[in-house]
Design goal:
5 helices; mainly alpha; flat; transmembrane; Tripartite tricarboxylate transporter TctB family protein; transmembrane helix
Length: 147
Amino acid sequence: MSRLLASTLFSFFLFVFFVLFALEAATFSRLAQFFPYYISITGAVLSFIYTTIQMRELIKQRESKEELMTLKIKRPLKYLVWLIGYVVLVYIAGIIVASVLFLAAFLYVESRFSVIKTVMSISVVVTGLMLFSNFMNLYWPNNLLGL
């Protein structure tokens, strides 16, 4: 798979995502739909334009029969697994606990931070989350553990 083809497929995925989000936002109450509806419409239009441009380039590339550069998929999949793991952790343990566990694992394993840098980073993020939730009067949804 070439990079251009992968990029085109991802742009198409974004287009589908924004269209589905616009359809979902259209079901919101009139006041609640304003921001998500227009953002998703804008995203759908821009991603459609970008996908169309990329498809034209892909057709030109196929017609000229240029040598295609292969895409290395292993590394992006590794980060996708990290993100899926974070989402699962949020579902199971809640956003605060999941953020602590995810950051500890990711910063120590992937970024190779020292323990001190990892602890400092986690402290900043947790403090930021707490301040943000108190300032905005947010209630984080329940999780499976009830934390």
